[in-house]
Amino acid sequence: MPENDPMAVDPIQPTLLVTSETPSPALDTLPEACSACRRCALAETRHQVVISRGNPRARLMVIGEGPGAQEDASGLPFVGRAGQLLDQMLLSVGLDSNRDAYIGNVVKCRPPDNRKPTAEEMASCLPWLESQIAAVDPAVILLAGATAMEGLLGVKGGITKLRGQWRQGSGTVLGGRWLMPVFHPSYLLRNPSRQQGSPKWHTWQDLQEVRRRLDQLANGPEIPAGEPSAERGL
Ligand code: URA
User: Fold this and answer.
1) CA 103, 106, 109: angle at the middle one, nearest 5?
2) Which of 46, 89, 105, 187 is the pocket-test mutation for ligand 1 (most atoms within 8 Å of CB)?
3) Over the stretch 130-139, which tens digit does the pLDDT of each residue have?
């Protein structure tokens, strides 16, 4: 991420990026309930269920694919190299990953050899993720990578085309929320160029857009319903 970039957004008061509400007690019961989960075969090979890190009162939720080796060992999402890059990228737009975001994954157990979770595994885990979304009640959801798009929205492939475009959630759990697909940090680790037009550069533009949206939502007025050109409803 560009450092000291004149376009970088100034950090703002953390209170504007979190809700004043107490998170739902549903989150308290998740660790025990998820640890007992045997809905799919990933339960057989996991060391730990990986539920979340960050602030359950944050207005921003980040959803990734699934735990890797370090997450499986620590029980926390996005703590390996991809997680460190995610933290840096969020910080480049003035967001502290543990203070200003609540972070989870489409699946809570590590797929062996870091393979992509299957459609069945994602579907088995979806009720847990939906209960997290409902409890945290984020205004904005960052979908990190194609698997997050597929697992949460059922939209397959094409992250290169879909990234950077706002989607408005619909239905009981996603209704009223803004969703932004971005490249997965692991992909950015493999494509480290910061040149204009590179995946990393695009991601930085996307995160600045997320930051703008959070600021608008915090400061009001409400963004009118409707679909500006770069925004697509679900
Ligand atoms: N990649 C993810 O998608 N999630 C993690 O928790 C770690 C790496």
Assistant:
1) 95
2) 105
3) 999 999 999 9
